[in-house]
Amino acid sequence: MYDFAYHKPSTVADAVKLLADPDAKAISGGHTLLPALKHRLNKPTALVDLSGIAELRGIRREGNAVVIGALAKHAEVAASAEVAAAIPALAFMADHIGDVQVRNRGTIGGSVSNNDPAADYPAAVLGLGATIRTSKREIAADDFFLGMFTTALEPDEILTAISFPIPEKAGYAKMRNPASRYVMAGAFVSKGPQGVRVAITGAGPCVFRQADMEAALAANWSADAVAGIKQAPDDLNSDIHGSAEYRAHLVTVMAKRAVANAG
Amino acid sequence: MPHVTLTVNGKSHTAEVEGRTLLVELLRETLRLTGTHIGCDTSQCGACVVHVNGDSVKSCTTLALAADGASVTTIEGLAAADGTLHPMQEAFREYHALQCGFCTPGMVMSAIDLVQKNPQGLSEQEIREGLEGNLCRCTGYHNIVKAIAAAQDVMHGKRSEIARAAE
Amino acid sequence: MNVVTPFEGIGASVRRKEDFRFLQGKGNYTDDLNRPGQTHAWILRSPHAHAKIRGVDIAAAKAMPGVHGIFTGADTEAAGLGGLPCGWQIHSKDGTPMAEPPHPVLAFERVRHVGDPVAIVVAETRSQARDAAEAIIVDYEPLPAAPSLEQAQAAGATPIHEGVAGNICYDWHIGDKAVVDAAFAAAHRTVALDLVNNRLVPNAMEPRAAVGEFDRFTGDYTLYTTSQNPHVIRLLMAANVLKLPESKVRVVAPDVGGGFGSKIYHYAEEALVTWASAQVGRPVKWTADRTEAFMSDAHGRDHISRAEFAFDKDGRILALRVATQANMGAYLSTFAPCVPTYLYATLLAGVYTTPVIYAEVKAVFTNTVPVDAYRGAGRPEATYLLERLMDVAARELGIDRVELRRRNFIPADAFPYQTPVALQYDSGDYQSTLNECLRVADWAGFEARRAEAAARGKLRGIGISTYLEACGIAPSAVVGSLGARAGLYEVGTIRVHPTGSITVLTGSHSHGQGHETTFAQLVSDKLGVPVAQVDIVHGDTAKVPFGMGTYGSRSLAVGGSAMMKAMDKIIAKGKRIAAHLMEASVEDIEFDRGTFRVAGTDRTKALVDISVAAYVPHNYPIEELEPGLEETAFYDPKNFTYPGGCHIAEVEIDRETGKVDLVNFTAVDDVGRVINPMIVEGQVQGGVAQGVGQALLESCIYDADGQLVSGSMMDYTMPRADDLPPVGVATHTTLCTHNPLGVKGCGEVGAIGSPPAVINAVVDALRDFDVRHIEMPATAAKIWQIINGSHGKAAA
């Protein structure tokens, strides 16, 4: 790593001030940023550690939504009775991110802000039609994920919490990259206040909604309804682990399994 | 340079570190606790796993400064002062769950966290899944899984000792 | 004293002595060492697969904080450092010696693979060294790269080394082509198969590391390194690279965190830190990170072959014809040339009575990391080829695959058995290992399991491999005649201390095998001393007289035999002392597990009585016998050893995703006498995991420009706990007939026998899809392609 100054503010306001420096970067669990820094792919002059900000913590029920603070670790979400009762698919998903140690450090805010195309959380956020709360505003999931590693967050804007509307049904299924164990293709499906949603992660350069599958599920909520719907491979990722065609095929398989998991 | 103060294996330490210093570097180079190893640079192998405030974490993917105020346990902190091994260490020896020994410290630390967080007990398949973050190139995992299964019984008080039945 | 429980000797699963330190974080691996005044090195490596170096500008880097020295290829050339030597010379068909281009420790004028070292930076801290390395400006002129066998041999391919025509290292053969061609011409049926043995990255969990230290007052150099064979490193580095007397160089390999072959070789970094420590006047430490390991540790395998069996009308093999191309990488690593020749083609008889064999092997330079021995080395390639071809043949001849193998086995009463490819097998019983494996794996019940799986939507398959390997390398005269530039004996010293405890000094080294326990068991068994009183010293050229190290499953067969020989000398001397003490004739003294007895009497002396007398020679035959009780023996094996056996794999394939799950694996191996069953099982299980990794998960991939695509554990699939099932291991023993222990070796059998068993199972699972062959690794994407692209009856 190149050296950097390390700051650990205790309020969002202080963090935002520190992040006004264009060469500063926010860090929480660090499980995406630190490997990149170790390979010297990135040269921030300062890291702003958000993990000391109390207002970013907590998992709570707010009306018909579960609100999860940005600092919630994957293991906390997986173990949360609140989440398990309201959105079991979200707890299931969190319980299958990376490995135990990643889940003990990685945070929902870090994962969603980073928007890795092979991450799990973006699928849940988009697939449930969640609302992202930031230090400045609220952003609908549909407006948040802009492209590979790109979100609607401004440089000095911090994701503070995510509000997940509680669905009637939701399910998640994924096929993992055999080496990295990141997602090769994953589908998060839900039916609820945000309508029927199917969000696909891992397969393309950014999480996306599968409109044909949403329409089919809206008409008939069953695994069979999506089984025949083919994803076009055109814009999907292709690498040594799987071609775009293979990923396209997996999209259908995972959507089918996600619906089955949703019950 | 900034300072970090943390408790390692029950002892308090204060050290001067760079912003970029990793927890594993603090442990190995400053505190000379070389039992915690570095086996990769992509957070895949788990040779560096230690406990931070009771959770297993990859110390190669944790900044030393982020552990300020934390309580850290490493492989060196497991055995009792009189040399009695932790049941997990004892099980690894009894079941031949290590060969070259390089992945072992991280494997043992992960295994202990896994067992502690699952008081209901783990099946063989659950143990295998729980070891996703730890690579071993020597054993094929077979004996590691057996050792953890035996250790969990002792750690949960279902069995009094690790020793295997006579073969 | 010296009461021995019988459980500690040969055949007992003694718990390992070394585990106490490993389990408490007190192992002593190279990177754990910190020498006083130590500096740190970073190696600047080529980002290009092939390029000319037009210039290297180190001015800015040299001015960086903490920098003590920066050295480039020009510096090491000017200093007269030699290149890394190759330890084996192969001659081509036409009698010409192999092409053996220079392998400089730092690239000079040209880089030939991504990761080729270009400069070493020595600084106060590792980060400072790396910071400075980034400030070095190298002016590269990229050249066309040839990372693949095909590219390197293409017409007009850019030569990777001057004077090496067509990038061919050698074009070697074994056997009589005319005789084999005639057998094919007269055959009832022939079966051919083209197959690839995928390139692998060894990935021992401990990355390589080296610390060099120069004492300017004595002129002595010390190298601490992650090596399987410190004496060999000392020999190669002192004589060939640094050009120093060996007596001025000490090499220490402390605890070594896995090797699997990759830590046999003499690597540039070892010589660089040793030399640089004298240049900067401080110890220099270098530790690879995993990314460096991927681009600098010798890789394994990487063959393309065409294999053909000729059969008579009864399904008996008449002949085997093989043509193989082997990727050597950009330079010749220490033992590279022997892997695709004498460790491969000589194994092509396998367990079968194939009367005539012809194999030709073309070794090719490419713009990739050098390739050398990786667990099994040549023998997995031979076994994979034979056992895949056997399955294809069984199907095409319409003969059951088990039956076809049985029909061609070398019978148990045919030993010693001379193969047509140089080796003479001493013992084996292939029908028995097959029968036992079929029984344990419940081969007969498979179809029911397949039907049950089908009901769950899974495709289930079963695969078998019956194999043999040659290890315990090796008779020096034989390997010398085949091109080895070293002897392959081993050295053992038994030092009986005055109080009767024992130190063993051995040239074998442990990188996970548990030698401190197994070797102590040998001593305990023979001399009657408790394991706790036997200490094993290895891995230090200053302590151990000499040694050739650990590889080729040789430590017990060769290193253990040297100890047995040294113990024979101890017993012989002890008998003379005992005879003196008991006033008997030497011929009348018997020895058994620590007790010297006058035959037919109850007059005895314990070993400790003898050792006390030997070191306190008050009542001692001093005129005819020297005091002391320490003996050294060199053991040079008479033959290779030939472990073999049967492996059976069972897989289930998810039809929708193509994912292959290995659900059952059974190994029944004949590894000769088993000293510690617990350790043998562990060795087999670990070897199987690596073989399964090759078959299902692992693949080292370069793109067409020579960039390493699978250059980290994010893209190179390492087997994890949930990729593997429990591995059932059993042994069926026939003794090796030519070493004193009857041992054969168990370190490599798992990696040799398992890959074809797994692929045969995958092909079997897809039996309804008209699949003849699947290349390794059988990834989900590959299997899906087959299922999806198939027009077989089950594809609808």
TrEMBL record, chain A:
SMART domains: CO_deh_flav_C (SM01092). It comes from the Bacteria. SUPFAM superfamilies: CO dehydrogenase flavoprotein C-terminal domain-like, FAD-binding/transporter-associated domain-like. Keywords: FAD, Flavoprotein, Oxidoreductase. PROSITE patterns: FAD_PCMH. The keyword Flavoprotein applies. Residues 1-169 form the FAD-binding PCMH-type domain. Pfam families: CO_deh_flav_C, FAD_binding_5. This is Xanthine dehydrogenase family protein subunit M.
From TrEMBL, chain B:
The keyword Cytoplasm does not apply. The keyword RNA-binding does not apply. Keywords: 2Fe-2S, Iron, Iron-sulfur, Metal-binding, Oxidoreductase. Signal peptide: none annotated. InterPro entries: 2Fe-2S-bd, 2Fe-2S-bd_dom_sf, 2Fe-2S_ferredoxin-like_sf, 2Fe-2S_ferredoxin-type, Beta-grasp_dom_sf, Diverse_Oxidoreductases. Residues 2-78 form the 2Fe-2S ferredoxin-type domain. PANTHER family: OXIDOREDUCTASE WITH IRON-SULFUR SUBUNIT (PTHR44379). This is (2Fe-2S)-binding protein. It comes from Plastoroseomonas hellenica. The lineage of its organism: Bacteria, Pseudomonadati, Pseudomonadota, Alphaproteobacteria, Acetobacterales.
From TrEMBL, chain C:
Pfam families: Ald_Xan_dh_C, MoCoBD_1, MoCoBD_2. Residues 24-144 form the Aldehyde oxidase/xanthine dehydrogenase a/b hammerhead domain. The keyword Oxidoreductase applies. Keywords: Molybdenum, Oxidoreductase. Signal peptide: none annotated. InterPro entries: Ald_Oxase/Xan_DH_a/b, Ald_Oxase/Xan_DH_a/b_sf, Ald_Oxase/xanthine_DH-like, AldOxase/xan_DH_MoCoBD1, AldOxase/xan_DH_MoCoBD2, AldOxase/xan_DH_Mopterin-bd_sf. This is Xanthine dehydrogenase family protein molybdopterin-binding subunit. It comes from Plastoroseomonas hellenica.
